[in-house]
Design brief:
By secondary structure, the chain is of the alpha+beta class. 42% of the residues lie in helices and 18% in strands. It is built from 15 helices and eleven strands. Helix 1 crosses helix 7 and helix 9 crosses helix 15.
């Protein structure tokens, strides 16, 4: 019998590729696509209903988010309380999510209760009434949260940044206010609901222990829904970006929130994957340059990071942190210094190898269960991409070199192209 020697580290292997579970497609009789990934060991399912009903589909702030959150507010056969009780009784739960472009309702349920829980979902997605009392309760609670959050510098900085980079009148730059809560009406919600939740844009994504019985149940509940197939509307126009400096003074602030970034390419652009690697070097993990400088060396903050976000019609890059008001100017100076260093000095082979291993490990760590494979599918499906995107991701990790990163930094991270937002004190 081999005895494990705990004094010796296990042998390390380089990861060359990761095999992903891919979905199969079932098209219901009415044309609704059902993508399903069968996996896992427990009799549990996640069924996600995704619609083109994100915040960018309305020029009124709050409307899309309110509609998605109020889908379980009550139907002719069930009150909101009854929906909650039934879902809880079957050990299931809903997760509602509204993004910039998409909105979704996900049902997590045991297989044996699928008929009962799907019936509740169908009721909510096809017959929500938006009772006036529920609408007013949602509006009041949202207004109260907004008023509290508006006292937080990081919250204000994020909203100010979105407006600055996308434009105050672009749908990606819209931000809700307490006044929007006051004028939220049941009539507007019903109109938005009928237009955007009519199943003409619905995609169903199922993951878990999916067999013939589960697929038949989904078909029996949703294949008879009737809707008109409209011509797909023109997508959200890309924003017209102009760099700027925005300062929101908070006289009593002890900390300043800093946000620096710009509109950038999205996932469909050939540079996006390489920019992810560059971003990781700069501020995408705990060992990044921004953390090493601003936190570890200077002690200006507990945390600082940078990120890339991909939207349907654009993408954006951002650096975010909070620092003491007495070191705000110094922190901003150091951030720009790190950006300039990326443009002037090649990344060392050792640092690049560390980032390469970190990103590969992070990718592996993100595949925890069968639901994770569904997330990987959504991440490419919503951009019209195929699984070769992940092949290109691993290929970029493997072949990335310092010169390529330096040229990317010169092209995309020049200080003159960035928007700077400070909320607090300069």
């Amino acid at each position: 019998m081999n005895v494990l020697n705990r004094a010796e580290a296990p042998e390390a292997y380089k990861i060359e590729q990761v095999k992903l579970l891919k979905p199969e497609l079932l098209t219901l009789a009415n044309g609704i696509p059902v993508y399903y990934i069968n996996g896992g060991t427990e009799d549990v399912l996640r069924i996600e209903f995704q619609f083109d009903a994100g915040n960018a589909t309305s020029h009124k702030a709050l409307l899309a988010n309110a509609c998605n959150n109020l889908l379980t507010s009550g139907t002719p056969g069930r009150t909101s309380a009854q929906i909650v009780e039934e879902v809880d009784y079957y050990g299931a739960f809903f997760h509602n999510e509204t993004g910039f472009d998409k909105a979704s309702v996900s049902l997590y349920t045991l297989n044996k209760y699928l008929p009962q829980t799907l019936d509740i979902v169908r009721d909510a997605l096809t017959a929500t009434l938006f009772p006036e009392r529920e609408v007013r309760t949602f509006a009041t609670n949202t207004a109260q949260r907004l008023q509290i959050n508006m006292q937080k510098n990081d919250f204000v900085a994020r909203r100010t940044f979105n407006k600055a980079v996308f434009g105050e009148h672009h749908v990606y730059g819209l931000t809700a206010s307490p006044e929007d809560c006051e004028v939220l009406s049941r009539e507007e919600l019903l109109a938005f609901y009928k237009k955007h939740y009519d199943f003409s844009t619905c995609v169903i994504i199922v993951s878990g222990r999916v067999g013939d019985a589960e697929l038949k149940e989904i078909a029996s509940q949703f294949a008879d829904i009737r809707f008109e197939v409209h011509e797909k509307p023109v997508g959200t126009p890309p924003p017209v970006y102009l760099p700027s400096v925005q300062y929101v003074e908070k006289p009593d602030a002890l900390q300043s929130a800093i946000r620096i970034g710009r509109v950038l390419v999205n996932k469909t652009h050939p540079d996006y994957i390489d920019l992810q690697i560059l971003n990781t070097v700069l501020g995408g993990y705990f060992g990044s340059r921004l953390m090493a400088n601003i936190r570890e060396d200077k002690g200006y903050t507990y945390g600082i990071g940078s990120g890339l976000a991909s939207l349907q019609s654009a993408g954006f890059f951002y650096i975010a942190t909070e620092v003491g008001t007495d070191v705000t100017a110094d922190a901003v100076k150091e951030i720009y210094k790190e950006l300039e260093r990326l443009q002037r000095e090649p990344v060392s082979g050792e640092e690049l190898e560390l980032v390469r291993n970190y990103l590969m490990g992070t990718f592996l760590g993100s595949i925890e269960n069968v639901f994770s494979y569904a997330e990987k599918f959504k991440s490419i499906f919503n951009y019209g991409l195929g699984y070769d995107y992940y092949d290109r991701y691993f290929e970029s990790l493997k072949n990335m070199d310092a010169l390529r990163l330096q040229k990317l930094a010169e092209q995309y991270l020049d200080a003159s192209t960035l928007t700077e937002v400070i909320v607090g004190k300069k």
